[in-house]
Amino acid sequence: MTYNFVVLIEQDESGSYVASVPSLTGCHTQADTVPEVLEKIKEVISLCLEVEKDFQVYSKFVGVQQIEVAETVSISV
Description:
Blueprint: E1 8-11, E2 17-20, E3 28-31, H1 34-51
Antiparallel strand pairs: 1-2, 2-3
């Protein structure tokens, strides 16, 4: 059986890439390059699926949005 998962990739403050699978709790890894993190996340997904033998995805990925929020500063007098 094959599955398709949404993988989110972020770059942390040290420059490492962090990959996570929102539909699998605790399914994440990190590496120095994008190709390396993609290979590692495939391994982690397989391990997560082994642990969750009765795996079912209950959520459907809709999309990612980037929004801008201005910081507000309160001054107490």
